Amino acid sequence: MVDVIVSAPEITVLKVPTSVDVSVDFGATGQRGSQWFAGMGNPNDVVIGQTPILFDMYINVLPSDPNGEYLYIYQYQYVDGLNTWVSLAKAGEYSYAYNHSAAFTAGTASVSIPITSIVPSDVVSSLTESNFIVTLGPEQSTDVVVASVASKTISAGNLVLSIKAAKYDGTWASLAETIALGISIRVV
């Protein structure tokens, strides 16, 4: 123990302690805080390896999830008298990238992409054409080909792209052949 005398503006230490004990073990042990888990599929359908407590978080890392819930974030919540995992959001942005074969006639082609291949089905009804940012380009073309999206429409659950393209072979001409187009779509 330390012998200390406290006097008006100064402290005088008469003996240096050989050890200092600090105890933080006061009160009962509380419940652990929330934790993050990762697993292959919806946490309501798979075993996560631990017993979750309210407000735990989970992320689905199954790329081939049959319900399209890859990278969905869930929270363990009390809902209607039961503890259950509730989907909160998708981690990252919705995006799509694919090579499509496009048959051009007089410089115009149409490519139809199911919107559910870009976003989950519960999001589809909240989107308009302006939510989709589309970039595209020809794949492995030996000639100079310029392609651009002339218009985007939503029809029967599909994002329909009307694409214009021209080819340069000494002179510019409207494209009249089938080419592979790399199409990338981001949702904003």
What does this structure look like?
The chain has 188 residues and is mainly beta. The chain folds into 2 domains: 36-90, no CATH class; 95-187, no CATH class. It contains 1 helix and 13 strands, in the order E-E-E-E-E-E-E-E-H-E-E-E-E-E. The strands form 4 sheets. A 4-stranded mixed sheet has the order 3-4-5-6, with no helix packed on it. Strand 1 and strand 2 form a beta hairpin.
Describe the sheet with the most strands. 4 strands, mixed
Instruction: Note the total helix count.
Output: 1
**Using DSSP, what is the number of strands?**
13
- How many structural domains can be distinguished in the coordinates? 2
Bulk shape: elongated
Quote the beta fraction.
over 45%
Low confidence ranges: none
Whole-number mean pLDDT: 86
| Radius of gyration based on Cα positions | 31 Å
Distance between the termini: 66 Å
The secondary structure category is mainly beta
Helix percent band? under 10%
Q: Which sequence of strands runs across the widest sheet?
A: 3-4-5-6
Sequence of secondary-structure elements: EEEEEEEEHEEEEE
Kindly list the characteristics that best describe this protein:
2 domains, single chain, four-stranded antiparallel beta sheet, four-stranded mixed beta sheet
